[in-house]
Amino acid sequence: MTSASACPLCKRHFGILRWRHECDHCKKTVCDDCAPKLHDSRQCTACAAKAKQLRQTQKLQQIPNPVSVGDERATRMRAAEERMKAAMQRGRPQTRDVQHPVLSVETPIREMPQQQQMCDTGTSSSTHADVPTRANPEENPVLAAALRRREQEQLGGNTNRGNSSEKMRLLSAIVAVLHQWGEDEPFGLRSMDETKLQSYLCYLKSKDKSSAVL
Questions:
Q1: pTM of this prediction?
Q2: Which of 31, 51, 96, 139 could form a disulfide with 7 if both were Cys (CB 3.0 to 4.6 A apart)?
Q3: Are 9 and 44 in contact (CB under 8 A)?
Q4: pLDDT tens for each residue of 23-76
Q5: 3-state secondary structure the chain
Q6: Residues of the chain with CATH 3.30.40.10
Q7: Dihedral angle computed from the Cα positions of residues 30, 35, 37 and 40, in that order, rounded to the nearest 10 degrees
């Protein structure tokens, strides 16, 4: 601690009310006001300002540069796009095989003959190596059920084309009653003749009346 008569920072003289203190950092002799005791350590105002400026500089250095962050994000996006393009090219078939239209179970009846003709034409024009082998319906129960469903729909469509207006009226009335009760059509309904349809409609009406009485 020096024997100076005045504080080198505030230039005020030391005395009974203004004591001498030594800065723990620069070791200068300063007064109480210029070197307050904080956290069991005395630090003059000059050293405190330097320490504050050093902390601010360190914080600025830790903040990432927005330009570099944007470049890094753009680089990652380009890399991701290139990976997606490469994956799409790997998954794309290199050769075009002859693809025949597949008949689904819900295919409309009016579209079935047209699609069947297209399948037959494509099969006859292709070579034996390109023709896919058809699975045996007995070995594939799903295929067998689909074939039976298609045959029933075709049978129903052919029957409807030959139906008279009276038969169509009876069918419409029966279907309306069944739908009103929330029931499905019985199997073989559309293959009945007009006499059986009339009898079945009378049965449904009598059943409806009996249920209404109850």
A1: 0.26
A2: 31
A3: yes
A4: 888 888 888 788 887 777 788 888 888 888 888 888 887 776 665 667 888 899
A5: CCCCCECCCCCCECCCCCCCEECCCCCCEECCCCCCEECCEECCHHHHHHHHHHHHHHHHHHCCCHHHHHHHHHHHHHHHHHHHHHHHHHHCCCCCCCCCCCCCCCCCHHHHHHHHHHHHHHHHHCCCCCCCCCCCCCCCHHHHHHHHHHHHHHHHHHHHHCCCHHHHHHHHHHHHHHHHHCCCCCCCCCCCCHHHHHHHHHHHHHHHHHHHHC
A6: 1-65
A7: -70
Q: Which residue has the tokens 């029966």?
A: 174
